[in-house]
UniProtKB/TrEMBL annotation:
Subunit-level organization: Consists of a catalytic RNA component (M1 or rnpB) and a protein subunit.
Protein name: Ribonuclease P protein component
Similarity section: Belongs to the RnpA family.
Domain of life: Bacteria
EC code(s) of this entry: 3.1.26.5
The organism of origin for this protein: Pusillimonas minor
Gene Ontology biological process terms, A to Z: tRNA 5'-leader removal
Signal peptide: none
Listed SUPFAM superfamilies: Ribosomal protein S5 domain 2-like (SSF54211)
Pfam families, A to Z: Ribonuclease_P
Amino acid sequence: MRATFTPAARLHRPSEFALALQGKRVARGAMLVLNTPREATTNEHGARLGLIIAKRHAAQAVTRNAIKRVIREAFRLKRQHLPPKDFVFRLHSKVAPASLTELKKQVRAEVDTLLERAARC
């Protein structure tokens, strides 16, 4: 399997996001929540990723974009070990003021933990 993050590995339609958000919450961390649909629908392309990073929780675009980049990279590396489902990461709390380097480390640690939980279920 290639290590790129193709458009087939992303959620695109609002209906796809809605199914995952109405489904079950797989894991919750300090900043992020990971949801997946309740039905056991399998994708022929493998696991797919959706991101909801609200402006009210991360006011600066630089912060939002850094969070998205870190989540995409972690998902890309762990995608082979995940079940073929849709996964939606949602930022649920305000981001504490910190440098971008510290923020990226915090987000990466949390995303890795959430993805390990998702791989087990």
